[in-house]
Amino acid sequence: MSEPVPEVLLDVTVTVNDVPRHARVPARRLLSDFLRHDVGLTGTHVGCEHGVCGACTVLVDGAPVRSCLMFAVTAQAHRVATVEGLGTVEAMGPVQQAFTECHGLQCGFCTPGFVTTVTAYLEDHPDPTADEAREAISGNLCRCTGYQNIVKSVLRAAEIKAEASASEGPAAGSTA
Amino acid sequence: MTTQMFGAPIRRREDPRLVTGGGRYLDDLGRGALAAAFVRSPHAHAKVVDIDVTDALDVDGLVAIYTHEDLPGRVGEPLPLLIPHPTLTHGRTQYALAKDEVNHVGEPVVMVVARDRYLAEDACARIRVDYQPLPPVVGLEAARTGDLLVHEDVPGNVAAHMLQEVGDVEAALAASPHVLDLDLAIERSACMPLEGKGVYARWDADRDELRIYSSTQTSTGVRAAVAAKLGMPLAKVECIAPDVGGGFGVKINHPWPEEVLVPWVAKTLGTEVKWVEDRREHFISSAHERGQLQQVRVGFDDDGRLLALDVRFWHDNGAYTPYGIIVPIITSTQLLGPYKPGAYRCEFWSLYTNTVLVTPYRGAGRPQGCFAMERTMDAIADELGLDRTEVRARNFILPADMPYDHGLLFQDGRPLKYDSGDFPATLEKLKALVGWDDFAQYRMEAEAAGRRVGLGIGCYVEGTGVGPYEGGHIQVETSGRVNVSTGLTSQGQGHETAFAQVVAQELGVPIEDVFVTTGDTRRMPYAVGTFASRAAVMSGNAIALAARQVRAKALRIAADALEVAADDLEIVDGVVRVKGAPDTQMSLGTVSVMSNPLRYAFDEAAQAATQFAHGNDPDRPPVAEDDEPGLEGRDFYSPTQATFANGMHAAIVETDPVTAEIRILRYCVVHDCGPMINPMIVEGQVHGGVAQGVGGALYERMVYDESGQLLNASFMDFLMPYASEVPHIETDHLETPSPLNPLGIKGAGEAGCIPVSAVIASAISDAEGFAITSMPISPVELWELRRRHEAGEIPSLRNHDATTRKPR
Known about the structure:
Largest sheet of chain A: 5 strands, mixed
CATH superfamily of the largest domain in chain A: [2Fe-2S]-binding domain
CATH architecture of the largest domain in chain A: Orthogonal Bundle
Radius of gyration of chain B: 29 Å
Helix content of chain A: 25-40%
CATH architecture of the largest domain in chain B: 2-Layer Sandwich
Strand content of chain A: 15-25%
Largest interface: A-B, 63 and 66 residues
Number of helices of chain B: 19
Number of helices of chain A: 5
Number of domains of chain A: 2
CATH topology of the largest domain in chain B: Aldehyde Oxidoreductase, domain 4
Largest sheet of chain B: 7 strands, mixed
Oligomer: heterodimer
Distance between the termini of chain A: 50 Å
Order of helices and strands of chain A: EEHEEEHHHH
Distance between the termini of chain B: 55 Å
Number of strands of chain B: 29
Structural class of chain A: alpha+beta
């Protein structure tokens, strides 16, 4: 048998929701685990750890990324936004608001991944059709809703964003 | 007026928390806990010869390694058989860690505890287990021959053999003008919640107490099972189901090996320990369902009326039977759907295989039964050249026949007796929704354009809300806050909202003041669990009864204080007031103050309840002999039998004439679960159920090779539907009340998935002109069936064009 090598820990700092967050972690630490276990932001969920379900989707420099497929060390040069950064109970972002209005979630486990994905999508596609909305969410798995009310939520979020920008410029909760 | 809350499609109260990352699921708890990981069997069937942990001992951060021989007393005994049945003559359950033998790939053999999960898995990778492989039994055909055995002491691999018969089937068949035989098959799928199982246990050494958090559908069940396993008083064990990321059945089975081991290790090490299932573990060590082979022989008259129904099926129960034979019992009873079967005989064999065990998955045996019955209905229609809906209608149990007793025992050991339902009305709504009578025209136009389309239908009845009971506890605080607790758990059904609606309605309080707790044994130690579409029926009614108690007490106290008769009072928006004189009033919070005679004031409101604050009757004690302090109520609902919901689905599918790709063009649902507490939530349940049904009909299956390896144990290879695979679902509802419970409601959770395989098979058969008898079906399989059909190996439907037309 070979003597196991003690793990080398690295100082890792990642900007999460506009705040630099530091931890000493091994190089193999997944970004999803870093966010959840080291930073304590447990809103990002892990459904498969092989990049298929999309529950762990976060925004890296504004683009949706599976945080279970990225190491924390490689996220240091980027700005990461999680579901916690997209709004609060008192001030929900437009996508979060829409999901609550349209019954776009049941157990809520996959929801953070949908919220981040849809947030990024609507930045580039502010006025999707129902078919486009369905296509936009078709990379994320949900086992509860049958997706119908998630499609509805995407369309409603686009409306809320449009209403907000018509009345007062950029919508609350949109990401950097 | 208090806003009407029962029946309102209000937004869910849990959602703001869940959409902002504030959910607290199992793995969100216990950041400082030690992590457990497991070495699991790579063999489907083998003797465990030796376990060598030497190489793992030096792993940095390792805390402990356990094998079966380390498990003391009852921890080392087989897990409980939860639901014994007289016909389950050869029930077998696994050990928490394999003792001498493993019976499926994924069975836990060694437990490792380390500082974090990464390190625990490092250690697992260094543990060497020597196995002596045995020949595995994979698939029902192999199990049925009995040539090879899963368990040496279970002849023929038969866990259970059960027969129920009503009437004389042989005689009725002999007298039937028409007899048909069908051979049918359904493959395995699984619940596959986005959150797998997980357990987190904390030992409180100062109090010798154990707190367990589990991603479970029954916290009371886990609590009792763990207390029994660890030999602890129930009073020293509590179990809480936190936010649970989906269940669909797999989390009702308990205790899972990890639910025993993690608390035991936490107690043994005097610390906190957590295990969170990863996706591959969920595939190979949780539970599957659905796999059955079925034979139907049906006798009917010239009008298509059933005279005799003779069903035999073989049910794959996997390697063990911890949940008994609930699934095949449900298949054998719920198969009957909305129909009068004539004489009925159902015989099944529940068989062991060296695969993951089988416990209920949403629908729980009903999708298979519905498939058998509905394929049979289509076959009768085709045989006689009748419209498929007409054949169904002719066999319906009618509203005037209710209550209708089938003369069979249901899964709760009580009579299979339908309480209510209007099946003809449901069918008429469905035909209108899908445009049944216009389909022949639509098909002609499609065919003219070179397209191939088919229309399918499926009907079901679902026994929901089985006992034995659930409870509700309601307490009004002096602030007017209403605390509600019920013991069953939540996995996304919106209980925090629906139960609050019931309380707001019954008690007359604003829903914003109502706070619901579920699945916490500290708050409600008496409960059964969330399964069988029972939560709304069981806890909803228990909570309503408790609310009525609180209401009566509030009126009594307020009547005393306001010096009026209780009958003259009403409660509106949390205020007790005199009918017609609303200025004479007091808030429920004030009633709560008065309900609890105090010695010590804790705030200004409480001063009113202290001993010198008001005059008293020296001959009466502060709390009357038949009373209790506090504005509280607790009650239980325990039904004599299940209540039966029903529904009918229709779909139009298109099959590509060249590639055999199958596309659902329309999917229509008519659903009757009685009065709906929150129609938005019910609708969501239907959508989700249909989506799982579509998965089971067209995409999902567990692919085992001949050695018992599960080849598609990942989301890459197991085709769970995305948004792109699930059709838009059109719905309509009937609300036929149940006479059985105070709220008149029926369950809705499982309904959506029950008939989907039957409906899609019906539609594809209609498109193709030959009968589909095995589900799920992929384009490759349909292509192969077409080839066999063209070669004359599969007969054409006899009266293809007639089965969507008007009756002769």
